[in-house]
Amino acid sequence: MAQKKYLIAKLTSCLREDKIQLWKPPYTNEKKEAGKEMKELVQKYSSKLNINENDTENMLEEIRCKAIERGTGNENFKVTGIARLDIYLPRRKSRKIPLETNLFITGKELRSQIAQEHALKENAIKIIINKKQLDLGKTLEDQGVTHNAKVMVLQLEQSDEETRRKVQEEELQCKKEKEINDKMQRTKKGLEILAEREEYLDPDSVPYLDIANQTGRSIEIPPQAKKALVLAMGYHEKGRALMKKKEYEIALPYLLDADKHFCECSTELLNTVDNYAVLQLDIVWCYFRLEQLDCLDDAEKKLSTAHRCFQRCYGENHERLIDIKGSYGREKVLFLRLYLLQGIGHYHSGREKEAAEYIQKASRLYEELSIDPDKVYRLSLLGFSEQEARLALRACHGNVEHAANLITNRREEKAQIRREERAKRRQRLEDINTLKSMGYSERAAQVALHNTQGNLDQAFKFILDNPELLLEDDDDDDPVTVDQFQVSQESIDQLMYMGFSRESAEQALKVFKGNIHLASQTLAHYGGVLPASLQPSPEGSSPSEESASSKDSPTESAGSSSSPTDEDMETDAVNEILEDIPEHEEDYLDLTLEEEEQIIHEYLSYIQ
């Protein structure tokens, strides 16, 4: 199959170079039959490409018929508006089938039509067009689908085995489809919760995702950019977890969602992390393993993007990696996969010379990166994991002693980072308790310290400068409103003794429910009167009620609910995300290369 595609690509390239249009005379007559001149072409290209004449004739005829079909479709579309779509069916039915339709039907109608015409279960397929999942509720035109678009059909069944009873089969398939959709919704929910959670929350009790550099230390990113990056990386990790299980049909939609969110990040940010480059590789790899590379029009562009991104992140000669990590042996697996996919792309485009160059580069890297199982075993006897062993051996060019030292040093570095993080956390908790002892709520203290990079003096001023934080209350069970709260005369007298008017004193004590410390500090900070945001409205509602929506953090709106059941579901969604995030920060570099070995040997056999 791969060889036939290669030969057709070579013939197409020859026709293009010779400016031959097979769908026009003299190669096609008025009846759209092959002209006599086709015989001359068969002999010419059979000799030029060293293919037997019978195969050359069949492939040229296939190219000619497809060109006529496409031309007829183009004319028909101009006249009737009926578009032709190329449907790429799942692997077990690996054929490209044309489908004619208007572009005003919905995605659901298209899915139904494909399912009916090709004996597929409607609820068991997903449609990918233009690298996006088809929206079932929108029309094809609204989703940018055009004439001659390529439509990729993903089948979500994990097994081709047919159950004995049709009813059981349909029930099982509906259940599986529901499970997959529910899982995708939980993933989306969990990632949104984690992306909205802010760093000042206590990570011991409320998990959140942090962005770290290649040494494992947190990096500062603007909140909006961080949200997009967390969503992108979260979807990517989910897709990678499914790729490890070889569930490419389910993994691809997650990867495409990750690509969408990465595109919301700034170019400057994408130039500093290699995640985007790795994602481009993973997307192309998924299409390839699904045997649907034809559906990815920009595979070559994605691979070029990955290459450029690696160069920017690692340096032209990997000098940045060497400065940071001391070597670049681990990252070579990414270049192996990159060269292999580039070679495959060249092969299927009929560029044999370039294909051979890149596949041989991948082959040489494979030989360099192959790990001796005995060395992995020797390192495991020292208490290291197989993953640590593989990564270290590649970084140290197979030297077991150096690999053991590298793992030990890296463990010590990570332990030191954890100790520093714990020390920061202890200091932060001490500062929070200091602010709490001054009468401020725990949440107000957390927000203030976060916004002042942990500076206690500035945090105190930050709270006073942001009066809505003064309304934060860790004990939110008291239903008494401002108007209902009874202020003691003694408290009023104390504030008046400090120089504040009776009206301001009584008002402040009501707002802060008798807390003299908060009342006096706020009045002193604002010149003896409460700021407008803390003053009760004319209707008598409390400022805390007015600011309820503004003081709710995105985290609370996304991560909390009045229903305990909803809270449990959200906790499960978050935990499901966290389960797919690998413990080792270099997990994406730990490829066993078993798949790559098989594919390299296959394509070397084609080009040698």
Explain how this protein is built.
This protein is mainly alpha-helical and 608 residues long. The chain is 60% helix and 4% strand. The protein has 26 helices and five strands. The protein has helices spanning 2-17, 37-49, 53-80, 107-117, 166-196, 223-244, 248-262, 267-270, 275-289, 299-314, 319-325, 332-348, 352-369, 373-380, 386-395, 400-437, 442-451, 456-465, 489-497, 502-511, 516-525, 543-546, 548-551, 554-559, 564-580, 594-607; strands at residues 83-88, 96-101, 125-129, 132-133, 150-155. A five-stranded mixed sheet has the order 2-1-5-3-4, with helices on both faces. A hairpin with a 7-residue loop joins β1 (83-88) and β2 (96-101). α12 packs parallel to α26 (594-607).
What is the rounded Rg?
A: 32 Å
Low-confidence stretches: 158-167, 199-208, 544-564
Secondary structure category: mainly alpha
Helix content: 55-70%
Q: Specify the biggest β-sheet.
A: 5 strands, mixed
- Mean model confidence by pLDDT: 79
β-sheet strand percentage: under 5%
Distance between the termini: 17 Å
Q: Which strand order do you get reading across the main beta sheet?
A: 2-1-5-3-4
Report the count of strand segments.
5
Question: Globular, elongated, flat, extended or rod-shaped: what is the shape?
Answer: elongated
So how many helices?
26
Summarize the model shown.
By secondary structure, the protein is mostly helical. The protein has helices spanning 2-17, 37-49, 53-80, 107-117, 166-196, 223-244, 248-262, 267-270, 275-289, 299-314, 319-325, 332-348, 352-369, 373-380, 386-395, 400-437, 442-451, 456-465, 489-497, 502-511, 516-525, 543-546, 548-551, 554-559, 564-580, 594-607; strands at 83-88, 96-101, 125-129, 132-133, 150-155.
